[in-house]
Amino acid sequence: MLASSSAFARVCAVPKHARSFATHKPSLKVAVLGAAGGIGQPLSLLLKQNPRGFNHLSLYDIVNTPGVAADLSHIPTNVKVTGHVGEEQLAEALKGVNIAVVPAGVPRKPGMTRDDLFNTNASIVYKLASALAKHAPEAHILVISNPVNSTVPIVAETLKKHGVYNPKRLFGVTTLDVLRANTFLAELKGLDPARTEVPVVGGHAGATILPLFSQVQPAVKFAGEELEKLTHRVQYGGDEVVKAKAGTGSATLSMAVAAYRFTNSLVRALQGEKVTECAFVQSSAVDGLSFFASKVELGPEGAAKVHAPGTLSPFEQQKFKEMLPELQGHIAKGVEFAKKQQ
């Protein structure tokens, strides 16, 4: 039996967020570099459905991108999708890009740390950064490729070589650490995860990830070893996914949501809204570190203001002190790699 016409209309109607897109005036071009991968595909799907902010989604990868683009192009929104494959099409993919999101690289496998990915992913990121410097020198670059603590400095040094580095336009996306902290705290304390926001500072690998639960509002209290265990879970939450996927990959869907959130926040900021997100950026907030993740106010220029970590609890102060040498080493490794490239 066929459904009534009114019921059919409700089911097949364009979602409200898609209809509202027509009321905005998108003019930005967003590129996803690594669009055919485990993060790139769901991220591209989310961006294609973005109800506002841009009108061109450029997808690039070394394989399969035209198919991903063709698939997404059948979704009825006003976002044009183009697919570009191979190095010979990279320049066209980057032409006129305002925001470049970079999830390209190999995923972690069981037993691997983010640092184990360095040799492979560092070369990939360096090549993409060089292309961005040549073909989209004014683009805002959002780095997802791990290890972020090292790949962001690689991008910075590469852009410097080409004379186009602007620290306000380079971000290491650490939003997944925030999402994990929000989720895990909400589960533990019976809070609404959608209304829970935990600042996360430091870096984006293991002990360099420091969730500041002391700064959550309203304040939460911990008993016994709760705080230590919760902090450790946020720091090594990625290992849970790698283990659960049993060798088939790392966090892709949650990372795609995190990348979408940050990209959308930046789009909003470029259009004049005041938005704050945590990100790994060039910072003078901590002596001895050229990059640091903390709250960043986003604006039309990109990173409008980088905040200091703020007041830390005694527990957080100790964790902060412990992570500094490791984070400093990660940054130096990225800088050294970039400087050795011809």
How would you describe the overall organization of this protein?
By secondary structure, the chain is α/β, with parallel strands linked by helices. The protein folds into 2 domains: 27-174, 3-Layer(aba) Sandwich (Rossmann fold), CATH 3.40.50; 175-333, Lactate dehydrogenase/glycoside hydrolase, family 4, C-terminal (L-2-Hydroxyisocaproate Dehydrogenase, Chain A, domain 2, Alpha-Beta Complex). It is built from 12 helices and 11 strands. It has helices spanning 5-12, 16-19, 40-48, 65-72, 90-94, 118-135, 148-161, 175-189, 226-235, 237-244, 253-270, 314-340; strands at 28-33, 54-61, 80-85, 99-102, 140-143, 170-172, 200-202, 209-211, 275-282, 291-299, 302-306. A 6-stranded parallel sheet has the order 3-2-1-4-5-6, with helices on both faces. A 3-stranded antiparallel sheet has the order 9-10-11. Strand 7 (200-202) and strand 8 form a beta hairpin. Helix 3 (40-48) crosses helix 11 and helix 6 (118-135) packs parallel to helix 7. The longest helix is centred in the last third of the chain and has 27 residues, at 314-340. It is globular and about 55 Å long.
